[in-house]
Specification:
The structure is a single chain. The chain has 1086 residues and is α+β, with helices and mostly antiparallel strands. It has six domains: 62 residues; 104 residues, Immunoglobulin-like; 195 residues, Jelly Rolls (Sandwich); 192 residues, Jelly Rolls (Sandwich), CATH 2.60.120; 370 residues, Glycosyltransferase (Alpha/alpha barrel); 114 residues, Maltose phosphorylase, domain 3 (Sandwich). Strands 22, 23, 27, 28, 29, 30, 31, 32, 33, 36, 37, 38 and 39 form a 13-stranded mixed β-sheet that branches. Strand 57 and strand 58 form a beta hairpin. Helix 16 packs antiparallel against helix 17.
Length: 1086
């Protein structure tokens, strides 16, 4: 065939293609009239319309939302615009044939600083039809701004806990186009412009307010600044900018050893193109120490004198006379100041809690049946009568109507009395009070997680005695006041108090500005009578967008889920911490590592944890490893197995959750450096490092495991992950090297920690080696739960027989039916846990993976100690630090370390999401691009009062869209299953039904039955699912599938699609260029 003839044939094909396409679109519109496809949830750097980002390659993400079965993206085009979302884009990806929609990186010319950019995305679906998003925006940060460099850190020479800085200047232009405040501090700050607090403008126009920015950071390495849109705050011809500063995390959390300093630049842009910069300097700014806050501390709280506030006046307003204020001094900071990359700690209005009761009492009763005594209650206000005689016998009881607040109309507290307010929920928060009293009256507020239960009260100085090694049970396991009073001993040396002195100005409002507390209860005492009109508890957290949901038919399990969520909210505040209440509140890396997967399911935490990971990698590049605490601590310089390994585990977890390779790329050098540290510090070839003098191991386990065994296990785990990361990074030789190393670590582990007995049995020598520091890892014993489950997780066995023996030993240990009388397990009932921090997120997944899901459910449903539901039965509303932090029968646990708001043991939710609900990421296609659906039934028998799990409703809003997985069962057999697979994703479903149930399965659109397959140790029916909503049900023993309401089926367009694909190929080959012009035009328009 001649070349000319080929071109004519191609033209004819393209013409037919155009005609077919036009006809098909018309048919589709008629057939699929109820279908819809849209692009939603556009994010930049995993944030909604972020302001002040400094990155050379921002990442763009979006979701495809459609009710069309099998709908998918086949190509995309991102267009970036400067200033407004119109005209010619300054950068475009062009049409990219790719179905990815997460973390699409910008690769154009460097972005301009302090500039608003808009972007849109157009996607092509499976039929070649296009959908274009609404525009979204982001704004770049300062970059290397010369004026910002000129802005000084202002301070006062005197060491002060809360100085105030202020400037007022005249606007140099007329009409304001925009205004931005760039600000940071050594310490914490709260900024005001023209009488209004500076906050964050949300995409819906609402406002949120940061608390204690710039937050907990590593000032030895860098400091972050924040950017605020303050355009609407400048409403006069002058602008008054004032900043209240506090010590925050700078210079020590427990005292005011740091001198707060503030650096700021207010940049005002006018419509005529001119700008005005207001910088912190010693010329235009004044400062004072006469503010109302006379003391503030992370640990100890805040002291506030309203009389000083009245005397000072409203310094935030324009026209305020600051002529008698002092001149400012300057301080220096020589490390980089970078833009905030994650969410700041904010006040979450939607999670605000209100009192459920208020108790007023006077001292303690003279006689009591409780060893520690009981409070003498005068008045009790609640929504319902208490079952406790303490709040009823001889008490003035007020039952409040459900639609009213406890404090409506006011409640009086007289001098000499104490009031205890119950908010109903333990949380990290700040209180908001509206109250009144005569001038000079002082009220002291103490914040507590628990109430005393009548336990014996220790009369000595607990903290002093503890420091000298007191082991007196009365000191370590006692209460610190009469029953009904707030329990403060677990705070250790933290005062956790707020003191307010009234100005006598009628109703006065107080909300701490430079501290925060972890509490459920507030105790108030006053020097004179006060009246309280309103109390609110305002939750603080750096995460708020809930992405995961689980509900079951078991109320206690549902409460456990709630407890884990509240634990995360409380401890994801500016940085992952261990607890929010006592003299600690530090960024322990082991806690963060264990909980990270659960945290990513519960809330949109990617930006938050990425910011944390950046800090860890900075530490690793500096020291070779991240310490046990990220910063601000002696432990920041301590290597610890299970803690420092977060350098490998967290980037990998983030990658699996998002599919974002750039996360691995960003941390690759640090990950390699950490592996080099492990290798160079082996205590013998292929055994983990010896470690430091203080080793945590399986922290707070009941049955101990040697630190050496845990170190070798995590060495293997790190190496196993790095094999996969190296392959993804294209480092094939390094991947092979790590793979060889893993095999050697495995054999060395077995050689060092396993005894092969003459009778063919094995013993895991988890009792040989170093115990956890201070005995806080339990009594070491052979065949510990944690040692067995980690061996199974890593495949540390030689053959199937050895694997089976490990499984048998693990199940035997958990069931605990005939424990060795000398074992620590002899003291506990059947189906109980013995693991600590490093086993808590591993034990149920390992059991399920090995076909022992019923044992996992038995553990979940145990409510005797140690178990997940034991704290729930004791009234917990958050996760506890210890399995035995408190019991109604025995009272309080060890006071040295007994937080009631830790999240580590809440990591069982990882298993609930992945296995019970059954929504898991596919390692080979991560980010939930292909979803593994593996609903795991509870087929066990009831052994206590807990209802077995027969109904589960769960979802996860991934970066590709909302995944749903709901199931019901009857007598341990699947009754129904419902799922939603988001548009532009697929799913592999492993449904626990018999082969007979699917023998005559009728396929429907979107569902392909693959066959029976063993999965997680049980036979399942395997299906491939296209995007869509599907219902499965067992009818007369047969599995029947249907499409969920609201979803529609598309007519077959495979012929059209193949023609379009052929035409695309022809176009790409160059032959298309010689086709007739009219055909080219028609094809391009289509």
């Amino acid at each position: 065939m001649s070349r000319k003839l080929k071109h004519k044939v191609l033209a004819s094909v393209l013409a037919v293609c155009m005609l077919t396409s036009a006809m098909a679109v018309t048919t589709t519109a008629q057939t699929d009239s109820t279908s819809s496809t849209s692009i939603v949830d556009l994010t930049t750097e995993y944030r909604d319309q972020p302001i002040g980002i400094d990155t050379d390659a921002p990442r763009f993400s979006w979701k495809m939302d459609s009710n069309l079965i099998g709908q998918e993206q086949t190509a995309y085009q991102v267009n970036l615009y400067q200033g407004e979302a119109s005209g010619q884009p300054i950068w475009t990806t062009g049409k990219v044939k790719d179905d990815s929609s997460v973390a699409i990186q910008y690769d154009g010319e460097p972005l301009q600083p302090k500039t608003v950019y808009y972007w849109t995305v157009t996607i092509w679906d499976r039929n070649g039809e296009t959908t274009t998003s609404e525009p979204t925006k982001f704004e770049t940060g300062l970059g290397e701004d010369a004026n910002w460099e000129k802005a000084a850190f202002l301070c006062l020479e005197e060491s002060s806990s809360a100085p105030i800085f202020r400037t007022e200047q005249t606007l140099t232009g007329n009409k304001i186009a925009s205004a931005r405040l760039y600000i940071t501090s050594l310490g914490a700050y709260q900024a005001y412009i023209n009488g209004k607090q500076v906050g964050n403008v949300q995409s819906d126009g609402s406002m949120t307010y940061n608390h204690m920015s710039p937050g907990y950071g590593n000032t030895d390495v860098s400091l972050t600044y924040q950017t605020y849109d303050v355009t609407d705050l400048i409403d006069q011809s002058n602008v008054a900018l004032s900043v209240l500063a506090g010590t925050g995390w700078y210079g020590g959390m427990g005292s005011t050893t740091g001198t707060p300093a503030v650096k700021a630049m207010l940049e005002i842009s006018y419509q005529d193109g001119s700008t005005q910069d207001i910088l912190t300097n010693t010329t235009d700014w004044k400062a004072t120490l006469d503010g109302a806050i006379t003391f503030n501390s992370i640990w100890d709280g805040e002291t506030y004198d309203a009389n000083k506030a009245v005397a000072l006046g409203d310094y935030t307003q324009v026209g305020y006379d600051d002529s008698n204020w002092s001149s400012c001094n300057t301080s220096s900071y020589d490390k980089p100041i970078i833009a905030s990359t994650g969410e700041q700690g904010s006040i979450l209005d939607e999670l605000e809690q209100h009192p459920i009761s208020a108790t007023v009492y006077t001292g303690a009763k003279e006689q009591s049946s409780y060893e520690g005594g009981e409070i003498n209650v005068n008045n009790y206000y609640a929504y319902e009568k208490s079952d406790d005689a303490l709040y009823n016998d001889g008490v003035d009881v007020t039952i409040v109507e459900k639609d009213k607040e406890i404090f409506d109309g006011g409640i009086s507290l007289k001098a000499g009395q104490t009031m205890v307010i119950d908010l109903g929920q333990n949380m990290a928060a700040i209180p908001n009070f509206v109250f009144s009293a005569d001038q000079g009256t002082t009220v002291t507020m103490r914040f507590a997680e628990m109430l005393n239960d009548g336990s014996k009260v220790y009369s000595g100085d607990y903290n002093t005695d503890l420091e000298i090694g007191n082991t007196d049970p009365d000191a370590l396991y006692s209460g610190d006041g009469p029953k009904g009073s707030v329990y403060l001993k677990s705070l250790r040396t933290a005062k956790a108090a707020a003191t307010y002195t009234f100005a006598g100005q009628g109703n006065e409002t107080y909300q701490p500005a430079m501290t925060f507390f972890g509490y459920r209860y507030i105790s108030l005492t006053a020097t004179d009578d006060i009246t309280i009109q309103s109390v609110r508890s305002r939750a603080i957290s750096s995460v708020s967008d809930q992405t995961g949901f689980i509900e079951t038919n078991n109320a206690d399990v549902n409460q456990l889920i709630s407890n884990a969520r509240w634990g995360q909210l409380s401890n994801y505040f500016t940085i992952p911490t261990d607890c929010p209440q006592r003299n600690e509140r530090e960024a322990w890396t082991g806690d963060a590592q264990v909980f990270s997967q659960t945290g990513l399911y519960n809330y949109d935490s990617v930006a938050f944890l990425e910011t944390f990971q950046n800090m860890l990698s900075d530490n690793t590049m500096k020291s070779g490893f991240p310490g046990a605490v990220a910063s601000n601590s002696f432990f920041s310089y301590l290597w610890a197995t299970g803690w420092s390994d977060i350098e490998i585990i967290l980037p990998w977890t983030l990658y699996l959750q998002t599919g974002d390779v750039s996360i691995l790329e960003e941390n690759w050098d640090a990950m390699i450096k950490y592996m080099d540290y492990l290798i160079s510090h082996e205590r013998e070839p292929y055994a983990g490092p010896k470690g430091s003098w203080m080793a945590f191991g399986d922290w707070l386990a009941f049955q101990g495991t040697s630190v050496e065994l845990m170190t070798d296990a995590f060495y293997g785990y790190d190496t196993q992950i790095m094999v996969q990361v190296a392959e993804i990074m294209g480092e094939t030789e390094l991947a092979a090297s790590y793979s060889d190393r893993f095999e050697n670590i495995k054999q060395t582990f077995i050689q060092n920690h396993v005894t092969f007995n003459d009778d063919g049995s094995i013993t895991v020598n988890s009792d040989v080696g170093t115990a956890s520091s201070s005995g806080k890892g339990g009594v070491m014993e052979p065949n510990s739960q944690t040692s067995l489950l980690w061996m199974l997780k890593l495949g540390f066995y030689n053959d199937d027989n050895m694997k089976q023996q490990l499984e048998n030993l693990l199940v035997e240990n958990i069931k605990n039916e005939n424990p060795d009388p000398d074992s620590v397990r002899a003291g506990y009932t059947q189906n109980t846990l013995a693991v600590g921090f490093l086993g808590s997120n591993v034990i149920t997944p390992v059991l399920t993976d090995t076909g022992n899901a019923n044992v996992a459910y038995d553990l979940l449903l145990q409510d005797e100690m140690p178990s997940w539901l034991f704290p729930v039965k004791q009234g917990a509303t958050t996760i506890w630090e210890r399995w035995n932090s408190y019991s109604k029968e025995d009272g309080f646990g060890h006071q040295e370390m007994n937080s009631f708001n830790h999240y580590s043991y809440g990591s069982v939710l990882e298993w609930m999401y992945k296995y019970m609900v059954g929504i898991a990421s596919d390692t080979s296609n991560p980010g939930f691009k292909n979803v593994i659906l593996q609903p795991t039934l509870d087929t066990g028998e009831q052994y206590n009062d807990q209802s077995r799990i027969s109904q589960v409703y769960g979802s996860y809003d991934s970066y590709y869209g909302l995944i749903e997985s709901n199931w019901t069962s009857e007598q341990g057999q699947l009754a129904s299953y419902e799922t939603v697979v988001p548009a532009n994703t697929t799913a592999t479903l492993y449904l626990p039904v018999s082969e007979e149930a699917v023998a005559d399965f009728t396929a429907i659109d979107g569902i392909t039955y693959v066959g029976m397959e063993e999965h997680n140790g049980q036979m399942t029916a395997k299906f491939n699912l296209e995007a869509g909503g599907y219902n499965f049900a067992l009818q007369d023993g047969k599995l029947v599938a249907s499409i969920a309401d609201g979803y529609v089926i598309q007519t077959n367009k495979s012929i059209l699609t193949s023609v379009i694909e052929y035409a695309d190929a022809a176009k790409a080959s160059g032959e298309y260029d010689n086709a007739i012009e009219s055909v080219q035009k028609s094809f391009d328009e289509a």
